[in-house]
Amino acid sequence: DLNNSSQNGRRLTLGGMGGLGKTTLAAMAACLTELRSEFDHILWVNLGSYFKGGSDRNNLSYEMYLDCVQNLCKQLNVSSVFNCEVFLQPGDSKMNISSKYIQAMENLKHEMSKIVQGMKILIVLDDVWSHEDVELFYFGEHATSSFDMLLTTRTLDLEPRIGSKLINVDFLNRDEAYYLCSIEAGLVGTIDTQDVEIIDSIIEKCGNLPLAVRAAGRLVKTSRTLDPDMSLYEISKILLTSTESPRMDHVNDILDRSFSFVKDTKASFALKVLFSAFAIVFHRDDVSRPWVSLDAVKLLWKALRYSDDLKELHCSLKKFKLVAVEQIADLMCVMGVFDRKYKNMPNQNERQKWFRIHHDLMFEYGKTFASKVNIYGGTPVKYRQHEITHYDECIEVSCDLILSRNTEKLNNAIVESFKSNSTSETAENMEAYTINWLPLHMIKAGLHDKASSLLMSNNYLGTQIALNGIENGIRLMMSFIRSYEKALNASSFLPTSPMISVISFASIYISSFTSSAIMHDSIRREIAEALILLGIELQKFSKWAKSLDLFTEVLNIFRSSIGGDYTQDITRVCRHIDSCALRNIILVQRGSCGILCLKHVNALCSKKKESGVALELKSHPGYGIVRMDDKFNFTGNKIMSWDYIFLGVGLKESSLVVNYDGRSMQSLPSGHKLAVHAGVLAESMPVAIMSEVQFHNPDNKETNEKSKKKLCAGSMLTVDQDGSIYPSMAPHLRLGIAEYPNLYLVDRGSPNRAVFRYFVHLQSMQKYNSETQPNEAPGTKLELDSHPGMGIVGYKLIHNPIVNKGQLGALRLGPAEEALSGRFNDENHLVFTGMYNGLAMTTGFAQNLKCGKMVYASTCDDSWFYDFKVNV
C-alpha cells in the first residue's frame, strides 16, 4: 500500500507451494516504477540458495548470515568490513558456542541498522525456509525512515508478526493457463476447435501451476519441432500417461525441495516414503486430493513404519522425535505439502483432524516418487537422476511396474492393518474408513471378489447413505466401480463384470425409498440424482434398456413431486432418455445429412500411436460410436457363423476404443474388427463389431473362400480427412446414422415397453385370420399408446444371402403416420402388410432372446425366432 507510506516496518508475505511464481511476482513488483520511486534502495536476498545441495540446516548459520550481509552491502555500494569475529575457547560448551554466534549475528544486524539509517529500504527475502531468520534482516527497528520487507515462502509461519500481511498466491485460472500453454507451445492462432479440449486436459494435468504449464507447453513445442507429423492428441497422451516421461523433471525438483525442510537425509527420505504412500493409497479417480481422517492415516503409516523393510527409516524419524503419526502429519502441513482441517464425526465427542495433499501436482510428485523407489525394500530404480543419496544400488526396472507393485503392496498393507484394528477398541472410529476407502483398497490390492461382496452388502450401502447421503454415497460407489474396471485393465466396460450386479443392487435399494408415502422433496431429488448416476453407469456397460428404465423412473419421480419447479430437471432427464434411444450406424449415400465424422482423425491415422483412440464424433459433439448390445449375438447358417454387436451413436463416455492400421479398425481389448455386417456393401446396411468367422465345413474350400472374401470386404474401411468413414470397396457410401431409433426387447415390467393402441383389434385378428385366406386378411396399424404420436416403422429392405436367404429390415420407433400395419397368423407370427408385406417380426436366432436385443422384419427362416403374443 504505497498510499500508507508513513507506516514503517510494513511486511508482506507471498505464500504458496513451489512453482506458483512467487519469486516472479516479487521480481515484477521490484521492477515497478511506482515502487522504485518510493524507495532509495530495493535489496534482494535469495535465502533458499543457502539450503540447497549438501546443507544440513534449514535456518541460517553465522557464516551464511555474514555472507548475506556482505551481499547487501554490495547492493548498497558500501564497505562490508565488519569487526564481528567470534572468539571460541577450548573449554566452551555447546551452549556457550551458540550464545557467542547469536551475539555475533546480533552485532552484524546492529551494524547494518546503522548503515541503512536514513534510507528508505525495501528488502526482498526470497524463498524463506525458517521464519525465525526473517527477524535478522529487519534493520529498521529504530530507523527514522521507512524499512519494509517482502517475503516469498512455501512454509507456514506459525507465529506471524503483528501487522504483517499474507497473500496466498493462487493458481492460474483457466484462461491464464490456456494462454501461457499456447504461448510456450507456439500454438497461438493455430488452434482448431478439437485441440481446445486437448489443451484443457494438459492444463488440468498441470494443476494450473505456472511452472508446470510452462514446462508442458515447451514439451509440446519440442515434440512438434522434432516430429511435425505428430498430432497434439498424441503428444498429450505421452504427456499425461507415461510414468517414465521426463516431462516433469524440473517441476519435480522444485516440489522435492519441500522435503529439504528436514535436513537429515534418511529422515527426509522417510518423509518422502510416507508422503508417496499417502498419495497413491488415498487417491480416487473422481478426486485426486480427498480429505482423509487421521485414523485412516494411522492405519497406513503404522503399517509402513513398523514393517521389517522400513525399520531403519523409522529410527531416523525417532531421532527428530517424530514418533506419533499426528506429529508427522502436522509437520507436513508446516512444510506446505499437506492441508489440515477439523471435522465433527458422528458418535465422537472430539473433533477429528483430516488431511489432504496440498495440490494436484504434489500428488503427481508422490506418484513419481513411488515409481522410482521400491517402497518395500527401499531400493531406488535407475531413473535418470533420482538424487536419492541414501542408497547406492540401482536396478533396471520399469517405473510403471514399480508403481504397480507399490500400489498393490501398500493397499494390501492398509487392508491388513484394518483387519487387525477392526477388533480393537478403536473399531468405532473406523466407520469412515470402511465406507470411504475399504472397497477401493480391496480393489487395488487385487481382492476383487471381497470388494464386490462388500459393495453388495445391505449394511454397507445403508451405512454409506447414512454417512454421506443418497446422492454423494452413490457417487462414491460409482468411483469404486470405475476403479474396479480399471484394475482389470479393461479398455472398455465388460458385459460380464460383477459391477453390473452391484449397480442393479444399488438401484433396487434406492428405488425402495420411493414407496414411502411421506417424503420431503429434497429426498426425492437425491433419489432421482442417484438413479441418474446409476443409469449413466449402466450405459457404459451397454445396458441401454436397463438405464432407460431408471431414467423413466426418475422422470416419474419429478413429475409426481408437488413442491417446486422441476421443469429443468424433467428436461434434463428427457435428454438422458433420448440418449438410450440408440440409432443404428448404417451405410448412407455420400453427401447425406446423417454422415458421421470422427473427432481425433490425426491420432487415429497416426502410425506412431501406442494405444487405442476413442471414436468420439466431431459431427455430433458429446457423442461417440458405441456398442448397441451388451453381449455378442450369434448369426450364420449351415456353412458358417460368427458373433457380432451392432454399433450406434451414444454418449461419448461409452465410445469404443480402437486401433486403425490404415485398412481396418480393431476394437480394444477384444481385437474384433469393425465391419459392414455380413459384408453387404449396400445403403442402409448396419455396421457392427464382428468376430472371426467359423466355417462348419472345411472341405468346402471354394465356397468358404468366396464367403471369406466377401466378409473381408466389409471390414476394409477408409478414414477420410474430414473424419468420415467409408468402405474401401464402396467409396460412394459413408458411415451414417439411422433416422429413427431401433426397436428392442425390454423386461416384461419395464415402463418403456411398447403398448399398442389397437391391441384388442390386433388380438382379434388372429381368429379372423384362421377363417380367411392370408392374402385377404387386413392389417392393424401398429401405432403405440405408450409413446403418443409414435408407432413401429420400417426402413429400406436389404438382401443378405449369407444371413437370411430372403429380405431383412430393421424395425424402428417413428412417427405414427408412417407406422406399419400387421396381423397375427396361426403360428403366432406378427406378419406385416404394406411396405413389409409378407415379412414377419423376429429377433433372429432364439439364443439371442434377451433384454436389449433388437427386433427386425424378415422373410421367415426355420432357424429364427418369430413367436410373439399380445399381453392383455
Automatic annotation (TrEMBL):
Domain of life: Eukaryota
InterPro entries: NB-ARC, P-loop_NTPase
A Pfam family it matches: NB-ARC
UniProt-recorded Gene Ontology molecular function terms: ADP binding
All residue ranges annotated as the NB-ARC domain in the record: 11-184
Protein name: NB-ARC domain-containing protein
